[in-house]
Amino acid sequence: MILMFVYNILGWLKDSFDLTLSKLKEILTRIAVFITVFMILLWFSAFLYGSFYFAYMPPVSLTKPVNLQFKLCEDGIGMCSYPADNITLVQEGQTEVFARGESYTIKMETVLPESPINKELGMFMVKLQLFDKSGGTVSSSSRSVSIMLHYRSELLRIMDTFVFSPLLLSGFVEQKQFLTVEFYNNYIDDSYNPAVGAYIEVQNKKIQIYTATLKIYAHFTGLRYMLFHWPLLSATVGTTLNMCLLSFIALLSWYQIYYSRYNGNSNSVEYEPETKSKDRSAMEERRKNIREMLARERKATEAQMLGKSHSYPEQQYSTLETMVSREVSEDTEESLISGKNTEGSESDSTFLRHRHPVTSS
Question: Which of 217, 242, 266, 355 is the most exposed place for a label (fewest CB within 10 A)?
């Protein structure tokens, strides 16, 4: 008795452990599937946002070096033409530089030495021309520039040179000044005839320049302004919206697959042709066996009627009648499920209901 009790307790513990383990496996599997799907959707959402950002956002700024070229005089000394440069703005693989509908600031930054020649230049003109693919001028701008450097007295220059003499001698600091020429403050490119290059000309033959750089800055508005000035917030909102959209599509797909499989298809289950043929064959075989049994019973009854004066035992006939009725009932139930051969089943049932025991005459 005690062993049986212990055996039952151990069996109950084993069943409880197996049930708990199966539930735990199911929960862990669901958590793993959820995390995997979530990470895939998150990665794909971030990828979609990044693709949209790089496709929608134009370059914020464009910097091109200006290599001024000029024609030498006949004696090979000095400039006999204005220094100028022809710059290609489009990069390899691009067809446009400026985004449609966006405004840009175009300016040139130059570095000038504090030489006596530059101090005596005074004012001069700087010209910028934007041209299209065919070489035609899209837009042109000219600006007057004063080369008058920031005034410093002789004493101030001596003190500045003395203080910064170690750095000047080591080459870390140079005596130079910066000059900025702004050509456009709100330039909007023509969408039908976009600019792809620029021509810059400094209309002064005596100027001395260290370096010159053409810079283009974009003034974003609307969605581009938000994407540029609040990148983290924009990335969070864009990724979240993509995540919601992809999750909705995934839920619709899951609903279409699983709900239609376990609910929609269960109401319209039909036997396959091969299954139907097997069921009909089994029903025909059973019906044939019943007919043969009834025929044997009828022959036996007729033989008893000819050889004996008393009737066929009621109990034996009743047992056979019950067995045949059960077989026919099963046959009728299967015929109702398949929807086939209903008439044959009804005829056999009618035959058994109207059949009565045969008595001796």
Answer: 266
